[in-house]
Amino acid sequence: MNTSRNKPKILMIAPLPPPVHGSAMMTQYIKDSGIINNAVEMDWVNLSTSRSLDEIGRKSIKKFFRFATSYLLTFWKLLIHRYDTCYLAITCHGIGFLKDAPFVLMCKLFKHKIILHQHNKGMADDVDRPIYRWLLPLVYRDTKVILLSQRLYPDIAKVVLPTQIAICPNGIPMCEKRPRHQRGNTVPRLLFLSNLIESKGVFVLLDACRILKERGLKFTCRFVGGETSEITRQRFEEEIKSRGLDETVIYAGTKYNDDKAQEFSNADIFIHPTLNDCFPLSLIEAMSHALPAISTNEGGIPDIISDKISGYITESHSPHELAIKIANMIEEPEIRRKMGYEAYHKFQSEFSIDKFEHRIHSILTSVNQSGGVKYVEYIGPKYGLDKTSELDNADIFIFPSFYKNECFPLVLLEAMQHSLPVITTDNGGIPDIVRHNTSGIITPPGSSTALADHIQNLIKSPELRIAIGQNGYNSYIHNYTITHFEQQILHCITD
Question: Given this model, what pLDDT does residue 351 score?
Fold first, then answer.
């Protein structure tokens, strides 16, 4: 690291709005973060070649010129400045990867440490294709890779080692006003908020609305988002008319800032039936407004929505299943209210902008401070958001206690709250918290060999880590939230 400066200097190569989309918004949050700016000095290259939604997916001389300019600007900055690290928001598949790869190779040419932040997936589809077979390992070798969810690791497992991974879920600012947990709509209002793209499940939702109308359910559904070259306003309105939904479905166009917040505040149910996604910000926005959500089992979405607790998870491409889930919420207002309450509290604990900024800060600073591989490191006590960041960035939580007076360790509950698979012992009341091979692993106290075997098994199996972590999180939600504790204490006092 360059010691001639007080702060490490990082070259940030990433898209910035406009147009507004998930990756660009998260980049903007990093650029504006006081926490991150106080810790590092950032120099920027904007990767956005489109300036509007209409330009996305279209070829043009202007876009080519913008991209060529970003290549030249990156090379010039690397030539005249000494950076400690290069951070790149990279596309991991398709033509996007081929366009982004030269940026990484330029940074490697100047022998910089490299962080690759992925807001997409699809590498598994390309990894065995001729060009990608040798280029992907070349690009990803000796880098730190930020994923939005551990669930996305299998997509890149053939190229990227588990030790290269850091997990950083997205986060957004809190609402200025505390959200309403109880809406006053006589007729339930559904909300879809995304750009009009087929892969976002636009037509799946329209088909589900048609099914609900045929069953006689009363509701309205508002589509909020920008029209695209793929689905124009005219085409969308024709699709509405062909399904007989003229009086039920409304296209409200693009909404920003207060107008967008008002859409969330006025809705009863948020629907995001995406066919291909990683970690959609719109779901987190809905949670910040105490909205129950229905989405699909895509990417890291099960990390956002706790199925049957803060919303529903459905199969993609299934308007009939989607219609059933929507009908359940329409017919059960109390379920909607409870799910919205749980969604809001999960947002507060996991997906606020403060949580995101501290996670990114931790990754940026740790990469700049790292030398060779450290198998064991003592970092001292951590509190508040720093402690949360440690839990967020971990893959496995280990608590091999043989303390003779162990009772009911809170650290296990904290780990389960963060969907971490835990390895612990059957000491004290721990077996009441952790169910062996389901919500965690129980190992004999004092046996380093058995502990090592269990750790090795979880390291080698990302799928097992995800499954156990999710089971642990579900157990926490059902049994160990502060609400459950308060109810139990009240029952003991009053009984």
Answer: 93
